[in-house]
Amino acid sequence: MEIEDLRTFIEVADAGGVSPAARRLGIAKSIVSRRLIRLEKELGIQLLARTTRGAAITEAGVTFREHAARICAELDLAHEMIFPGGDLRGRLRIAAPLTFGPSHLAPVFAELARQHPALQLHACYTDRYVDLVADGFDCGIRLGYLADSSLIARRVVSMRGSLVATPGYLREHGEPETPEALLAHDALLQGTESWRFMDGDKIVTIHPRGRFKADNGLALATAALAGLGIAALPDFLIADHLASGALKRIMTRYPPPEAGLYVVWPPTAHPPRKIRALIDLLIERLG
Q: Where are the transmembrane segments (predicted)?
């Protein structure tokens, strides 16, 4: 079984067809098709159902893709262990936040790809929670506070956040002075999250309520600027609005705990060198 056949199958399965996979790999469609046929013949099963609109992965293909990806990852790791100073190879799939990602992380990803021409780097930007293992990502970058999980995490840089609202909202509804007072206000939320505040050495947790929700920090900042309520946002997102006076920090006696930007990845005895290279570059550029 050829390793190129396995990598090609994974690419076709992820891209949803022979043509997009060929473009990603930079090879002719005929080569992609020949590798797929050879792999299916050797396995004795159909991995992809060909249609006029592309190639849909079969149930057997879904199962085999997980094993094929694991085999390729192990081979990449073995290559790194044997040649620790060699070029980074294989593919690095990163789940990155849509808020902050395109503006701050994309240049770092581009630089990593420039430094390592043999590395395939695929970044997916979304503010929704991503299951790295189920969705086939090598690592993720997360902002804020990390929930308990089996993932391994490395903090890249500390981050601060603030509770903000427009002066107009505060004139109309009053300015809360304690965490408990927030329960009488409209909160701008991503979902059903809780808000945490420092009261001296103690952490106070509340569960705010609000009618406006969005899964993106920029959208919440826009809602705050429209006077719809109080938002808890990272300082990098609201610095200009604070400087102009469009938004005002509130409850500064009860600051949110220090947050961070983290790189997280599934447990492994030896973190892949490509993830270590990403962490080093993020620290160099952002830390």
A: none
Q: Are residues 133 and 193 in the same domain?
A: no
pTM assigned to the model: 0.70
Phi, psi torsion values for 147, nearest 5 degrees: -75, 155
Question: Can you read off the two tokens belonging to residue 36?
Answer: 């797929």
User: What element of type H or E holds 95?
Assistant: strand 90-96
Total structural domains in the chain?
Answer: 3
User: To which H or E segment does residue 49 belong?
Assistant: strand 48-51
Over residues 37-66, mean pLDDT = 84
Question: Do 146 and 282 share a domain, yes or no?
Answer: yes
Identity of the amino acid at 90: G
Q: Residue 147: is its pLDDT beyond 90?
A: no
Clarify whether residues 266 and 142 are in a common domain: yes
Q: Which residue is it, tokens 């550029």?
A: 285
Let me know: does 106 contact 123? Beta carbons within 8 Å.
yes
User: How far is residue 287's CA from residue 283's CA, in Å, rounded to a whole number?
Assistant: 4
